[in-house]
Amino acid sequence: MPFVTTKDGVEIFYKDWGSKSAQPIVFHHGWPLSSDDWDAQMLFFLSKGYRVVAHDRRGHGRSEQVSDGHDMDHYAADASAVAEHLDLRNAVHIGHSTGGGEVARYVAQYGEPQGRVAKAVLVSSVPPIMVKTESNPDGTPIEVFDGFRSALAANRAQFFLDVAAGPFYGFNRPGAKVSEGVIRNWWRQGMTGSAKAHYEGIKAFSETDQTEDLKAISVPTLVLQGDDDQVVPYKDASRLQAKLLQNATLKVYPGFPHGMLTTHGDVINPDLLAFIEA
């Protein structure tokens, strides 16, 4: 399997499909998943002639289960290690949830300064900051994230089942079309990773202030979210992202859940393609 070694010696697994001469689209997955969460998008864009790349975040999926570095700075540096190793240029970086935070920091601190990025997409993403603070009074109370940590530490396997079968895909909503395969695949991806990486990743995705990252990004950026996102409230996420970014296009989907890339890929994928080709 292909791996790249980061500057601090961590083995990061990646996928690289398609013609090396084609424009690259780089996918950044959410917590606590892996690059497998992008299967539908990678196959779709591969069929459209693009080069598609995705990696497993450190401690997630097939990447090395190291003890340290489970924070947004290391996530972005690891993404940069993949981009530099493959010499990706004119790339479109697409991030979901925590992966959106990774994209924001990568593009702001590595991608744009190195001239590697053409466009960016934030889908149901965590920036600017999730947790409630004095400067972010509409954020999610810290007690919610403490509850995540407690549930993960007590019984990670059951917690991950509950998340996938409930709020992540909106399967807890009346009349929802529940997919057992989707639930099992989410659980499979999560349980492949490191409990320590997942535990510490909660702080990374909830308490990292990325206001300055968003302000620094100048490339065209598409911001997508569902207004029934039960994981990342859209009023404190996508709406604020669009205000802070220099060149943003915002689209909010009525009734779509946090995991809308999976449940509504037939709608989202063409919208992504239209933005990339514009």
Automatic annotation (TrEMBL):
Q: Name one GO molecular function term.
A: peroxidase activity
Q: Which organism is it from?
A: Kaistia soli DSM 19436
**Family label:** Belongs to the AB hydrolase superfamily. Bacterial non-heme haloperoxidase / perhydrolase family.
- Every AB hydrolase-1 domain range: 24-259
Gene3D superfamilies named among the record's database cross-references: alpha/beta hydrolase (3.40.50.1820)
Stated name of the protein: Non-heme chloroperoxidase
Q: One Pfam annotation, family name?
A: Abhydrolase_1
Highest taxon above the source species: Bacteria
Keywords, alphabetical: Oxidoreductase, Peroxidase
